[in-house]
Design a protein that fits this description.
Layout: E1 5-8, H1 18-31, H2 40-46, H3 51-58, H4 67-82, H5 92-101, E2 105-113, H6 114-124, E3 132-136, H7 145-154, E4 160-164, H8 167-175, E5 179-183, H9 190-194, E6 200-201, H10 206-213
Parallel strand pairs: 1-2, 1-4, 2-3, 4-5, 5-6
Helix pairs in contact: 1-4
Length: 214
């Protein structure tokens, strides 16, 4: 096999939580008299990392309310209620199962706070597929560049393929010296992902054929 490790993103890649995220932030926008997000397409064009920049695009005033102590906790509280209605992405579990059977070590690398992430994995029945789960030590979703670099330092000989749904996932893969595949049904638009120049899949099951092709 060309790769020894598959490093997965979680939100928007394995978990289809776009509606949960939009619903949570729209409540926050309504409370402040700001324009809400009117469609998934609009959301995908606005969404970016670090999340504080996404909030700035939406019109939140950080001089009035601190992102770290007010806005981020408010969003997380609502998201944790909303995501319970979020399905796994199509063929997520079967793809994880197949890759495990093929002998790949699978890591989850997320910008979600670690204990929150582990709780979600447990509720979704996904923890069994991962040899490692890497998250952040805070809820601020600033990105996972440092976590990816730390992962690479711990696995200097790994030949890794990162799988995610945002430009940030591509940037993280590059920083870790890894290849990347992007999933087009997640948090950013196909047009944004195309600019990265790496393979794009529309269904997670396509990853299997892509690995065989390589």
């Amino acid at each position: 096999m060309k790769y020894t490790h598959i490093v997965w993103d979680f939100n928007g890649t394995l978990l289809d939580d776009i509606s949960a995220g939009i619903d949570a932030v729209n409540v926050m926008l309504e409370r402040r008299g700001l324009a809400t997000i009117d469609s998934v397409e609009t959301y995908r064009e606005l969404f970016c990392f670090p999340i504080i920049q996404y909030y700035a695009k939406l019109g939140f005033d950080f001089e009035k309310e601190d992102y770290y102590t007010v806005l981020a906790p408010e969003w997380v509280e609502m998201y944790l209620e909303n995501y319970k209605f979020s399905p796994l992405s199509a063929n997520a579990k079967s793809t994880l199962q197949r890759l495990g059977e093929m002998g790949y070590a699978q890591t989850l690398l997320s910008a979600t706070e670690l204990q929150m992430l582990r709780g979600q994995l447990s509720e979704l029945g996904l923890e069994q597929y991962f040899t490692e789960v890497c998250g952040l030590d805070n809820i601020h979703a600033g990105g996972k560049m440092d976590a990816a670099i730390a992962w690479r330092a711990a696995h200097p000989d790994a030949v890794a393929l990162f799988v995610g749904d945002t430009v940030h996932d591509y940037e993280v893969a590059r920083a870790a010296g890894a290849d990347c595949v992007l999933y087009s049904k997640g948090h950013q638009s196909h047009a944004q992902l195309s600019a990265c120049g790496c393979p794009i899949i529309e269904d997670l099951s396509e990853l299997i054929n892509l690995l065989f092709a390589k």
